[in-house]
Design goal:
Strand content: 5-15%
Strand order of the largest sheet: 1-2-3-4
Structural class: alpha/beta
Oligomer: single chain
Length: about 180
C-alpha cells in the first residue's frame, strides 16, 4: 500500500475482473516507539508512508471510481494521536494527524463532487490489539477496548440513512488516558 503504482494496479485488476470497491476501510498502522533523537529517516518514512501515504493512495483510486459510479463509502481509521500526542509517537501522530486532515478534505470534496459518497474518519483509541500489546506487554488492559468497538463504529458509519453521513466518530474506552 506504500507503492502508489501497485495500489493503482490492484484497482485496475479488480476492474478488469468486473469488480468494484463500494466500501474502502483504511485500517493501516505501524509505529516505532522511541524518542525522536533516536529515530532514523527510514523508520520515519516507513511509519508515515504506511499511516498516511498508503491510505491516501487507496483513497485516490477508490474515490475516482466512486465518483464515476455515483456512490460508495470511504472509512479512514484514525487515532487519538490525531488529536493529542504523547512522547515517542512523533511519526505516528504526524501520519494520523495528516490522515485526519485528508479525511476532512475528502469529506468536503465528496459533498461537492458526489453526494452519494460517504466519508468517515473514526478516531479510535486504547485498543487491545497486538499494535499495543506487542509493544507494551505490561499495558493495563482494563484501560483498553476491544477491536469489535471499531468494527461496530464502521458498521454504524455505513448504516447512516442516505442523505446523511457520520463525518467523524470517536470511540475510546471510558477511561482513555490519551484523549482528547
Amino acid at each position: 500500500m506504500r507503492d502508489a503504482d501497485a495500489v493503482a494496479g490492484v484497482f485496475r485488476e479488480l476492474e478488469q475482473g468486473g469488480g468494484a470497491v463500494d466500501v474502502l476501510v483504511n485500517n493501516a498502522a505501524v509505529d516505532v516507539s522511541k524518542p525522536i533523537e533516536h529515530l532514523t529517516a527510514d523508520e520515519v518514512t516507513r511509519v508515515v508512508a504506511t499511516n498516511l501515504l498508503g491510505p491516501m493512495y487507496l483513497c485516490l483510486e477508490a474515490y475516482r471510481r466512486m465518483v464515476a459510479r455515483g456512490g460508495g463509502h470511504i472509512v479512514n481509521i484514525l487515532s487519538t494521536a490525531a488529536n493529542r500526542t504523547w512522547t515517542e509517537a512523533g511519526p505516528y501522530a504526524a501520519g494520523k494527524s495528516g490522515l485526519r486532515a485528508f479525511t476532512h478534505t475528502l469529506f468536503k470534496e465528496a459533498q461537492r463532487d458526489c453526494p452519494g459518497i460517504g466519508v468517515t474518519g473514526i478516531v479510535a483509541g486504547g485498543m487491545e490489539t497486538p499494535f499495543i500489546m506487542d509493544r507494551f506487554p505490561d499495558a493495563d488492559t482494563s484501560l483498553l477496548q476491544s477491536p469489535d468497538v471499531v468494527a461496530d463504529a464502521v458498521l454504524y458509519a455505513l448504516s447512516v440513512p442516505e442523505g446523511s453521513v457520520a463525518g467523524e466518530l470517536v470511540v475510546v474506552p471510558r477511561r482513555e488516558p490519551s484523549w482528547p
